[in-house]
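Glutaminase
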Amino acid sequence: MFARGVRAVALMSSFVVSISEAIQYTPLQPPSYPLAVRSPYLSAWFPGPSVGSLASTNAQFWSGDAAPLVWTVLARVDGTTYNLFGVHTPNDGTQPGEVTAATYTSTHSTFTVTAGQRSFTLDFFSPVSPKNLLRQSLPFSYLTVTLAAGDSHSVQVYSDIDSTWTGQQSDSTWSHSTNGSTRVFQITAVGTATYSQNAETEQALWGSAVYATRPGSGSSLSNQAGPLSTVRQGFIDNGTLTGSQASWTSDGVTGFAHDLGTTADQSAVTFAIGHVREESINYLGAAQTGYYRATYPETVDAVSYFLDDYDDANSESTRFDDLIQTTGSTSFGSNYSDILALSTRQVYGGIEIVIPNDSLDTSQTKAFIKEISSDGNINTVDVIYATFPIFYAPPHSHFDYQASKGYSESYAVHDLGANYPNATGHLESGESMPVEESGNLIILTYAYQAASEDTDLATTYSSQLETYAKYLSNNGLYPASQLSLNDALGALANQTNLGVKAATALAAYGKLVDDNSYLRQGRDWADQIWTDHLGTDDAGTRFLIQYGTNPWFLVFNHYADKLFGLDAFPEEAYNATSTFYPTVRDDAGVPLDGSLSWGQTNWQAAVAATVSGEARDILINDMWAYISNGLNDAPFSDRYWVKANDGASPGESYSFRARPTLGSHFSLAALSGANIWP
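Tokens:
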């Protein structure tokens, strides 16, 4: 069984290579391309190994094969129709386009497709705008289809979506509206509850899928809603649509057709795709809505503005892409910049920026993050901690909740709710990580203050921070049996990595409040853990998973010590791990600990920021090899097999997909200091 599994993977890999030889991949062929990735509910991807069959393969929601998304592009050149993207069941008489190039940056995924005598570029663009909250909060993404200059031909471009975007295909409704030249379709699931998800795919069942466009320069626009075969055949036959809107059917689509005329010039048309939910998040019983609604409360106005904003958003994206490329290259090299570029949209795509739905008060702005692909918690503290090297965000909502009557523990909360989007409070039966989360909130607060020079957060929540510091002071060096950030390992007592987190957090707290007693305690604990071998082997060559107990562990919790120059752990600790980790590398990377067959990229990246030389090279280059090996088709999984295990080959992803925890990949880049984004 095992041998056959390995052989099957090898054959699959060679097949992928053979059909992909003619395609130019820049910078590499990733496991999955982000297409429209803007929130946990607008998250469309395309499997990297399937690029050769772009014309006939569906996009997917982040959850994969169980959630195909109907989103198609066809082009008609001199009366012959070519399927460019997503046409799973082609109409008779149509032909597939030929993909010649595929590229990704931190904000764009672009495919070049030849259709007869003309070439088209499909540019899937999800803006990342760290300081423009209006732009970042808009729940839409762009698709621009560009006709390259060439010989003169008659050209029309068509695109459609269907109710797969609503999470429920059994019963939906659709509508069409206009705003000036903008035409907007909305598709809404019927009979579903607010804040409900599809249990299998985790798609939102409330709200509406949105598809919109407007005429390009020199083009004319038509639209139609109805049965798939009827709408597409109308375009194939005539190059235009009738403008009619039939009643919704389960095989129905909402389509647009752009007639570019007979031209030899370059020409482009842009579509906006999205998912809107007026009541986006349930925060302690109060409905929250998208930040953008303070300015554009109506969906038609919001998507019209989004299309208006394309040029400015695209200009910003060029500068942002350059920043990510330069940051990665100067921090380590092009392999590292490839990793950062693929990680960025995934991180931001796990987050929503909201305000109260009743007041639309932007002074009450909050951000909520979904623990995608694991247990679906909302605002999990350790998930936020795993993102923080890419941005230092103040955890206001956690402090506000912990100050309420709904929470009374002396340590920090694990999450604000068991199921996104319901931030209705931590369940008594839910996970708790007393040392982990207390340390995380202190470090996150210190990170925010250090980067922003804003002391208000630490001042406003000083009593809570002091409570967590005292908890760590009393319980952190010898943690009771409890979960840590890597909860897959189960609850363990005296976890070295938790002791390291406590020591580092106490040192950070001492810096935060200018109290040398906490700084000294953190440094004393670090000295006991490393120098006195409490958490190491007798020779002091490696950290152990538990005090005095094998196996060794990939310790990442002293990253904040290195990042902020806390000087808790001695340099010899970092030198020793730099020497040790290369000795335990498996076939495809360094595992999380000596008993496991899998590694985790977010913590490999954090450790890469604490080591040097060969160890750093191995950690970063193994991550690059993992995302470029052609064995995977899931959105960047942060867990993968580093050696063969139960039929899985080294370098295959394991379990997770599309998680926002990839912010940790920026750990090494963060050592160079903040990039001040305008």
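DSSP finds 18 helices and 28 strands in the chain.
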